[in-house]
Specification:
The complex is a heterodimer of chains A (117) and B (108). By secondary structure, chain A is mainly β. In chain A, 0% of the residues lie in helices and 50% in strands. In chain A, strands 2, 4, 5, 6, 9, 10 and 11 form a seven-stranded mixed beta sheet that branches. Chain A has a four-stranded antiparallel beta sheet with strand order 1-3-8-7, with no helix packed on it. Chain B is globular and about 40 Å long. The N and C termini of chain B lie far apart (37 Å). Classes of the chains: A mainly beta (117), B mainly beta (108).
Chain lengths: 117, 108
């Protein structure tokens, strides 16, 4: 196993609600990336956090937001849920490099499966 | 045009067959390349990195052609346990870009 954990494993919400997903990175990993994987598609990059700061964002609206804590764990928050937000949400942590965040070898958690009704 | 495109699947092959997956990417500035494997309803797991010189790991061989922006994965002597979705992944700097995946089903 990768040592990356996510909670909860499954979640059911209704349209308009808000959700918070959590991720604990592998020990010593200071970079956390979040991805959304819709059914039948590859994961899509949402954003990345490095040392508690957002360090890059994909093509997702502002209602997708995140946090990284001093222990490098992270949260993904989604407001005003829409049906299309139903997906597997994956977080991945990666090793630090001397020059900054590392994104090459990313270790994925098991994901949170979100269903929006 | 998608940033990373893969062969549409699924691929259904008998045990022992050789199977090849193809992938193209659009960002010529991409710096690193990978194949990930994803089992049904599980997280993606790194299968192998892909280097310009080509690299091999047991039954798996990966090739990269930067000029053509093309990546391939060859699986020899396929096993039942190779059944999964194979994701082509490109890092243009700062994030991983995934293809949509190609499903492989190996039958007895």
């Amino acid at each position: 196993e990768t040592g990356v954990t996510q909670s909860p494993t499954h979640l059911i919400k209704t349209r308009g609600q808000q959700v918070t997903l959590r991720c604990s990175s592998q020990s010593g990993h200071n970079t956390v990336s979040w991805y959304q994987q819709a059914l039948g598609q590859g994961p899509q990059f949402i954003f990345q956090y490095y040392r508690e700061e957002e360090n890059g964002r994909g093509n997702f609206p502002p209602r997708f937001s995140g946090l990284q804590f001093p222990n490098y764990s992270s949260e993904l928050n989604v407001n005003a849920l829409e049906l299309d937000d139903s997906a597997l949400y994956l977080c991945a942590s990666s090793l630090p490099t001397s020059g900054g965040p590392s994104t090459d070898t990313q270790y994925f958690g098991p994901g949170t499966r979100l269903t929006v009704l | 045009r998608k940033e990373v495109e893969q062969d549409p699947g699924p691929f259904n092959v008998p045990e022992g067959a050789t199977v090849a997956f193809n992938c193209t990417y659009s960002n010529s500035a991409s710096q690193s390349f990978f194949w990930y494997r994803q089992d049904c309803r599980k997280e993606p797991k790194l299968l192998m990195s892909v280097y310009s010189s080509g690299n091999e790991d047991g039954r798996f061989t990966a090739q990269l052609n930067r000029a053509s922006q093309y990546i391939s994965l060859l699986i020899r002597d396929s096993k039942l346990s190779d059944s999964a979705t194979y994701l082509c992944v490109v890092n243009p700097g700062g994030k991983l870009i995934f293809g949509q995946g190609t499903e492989l089903s190996v039958k007895p």
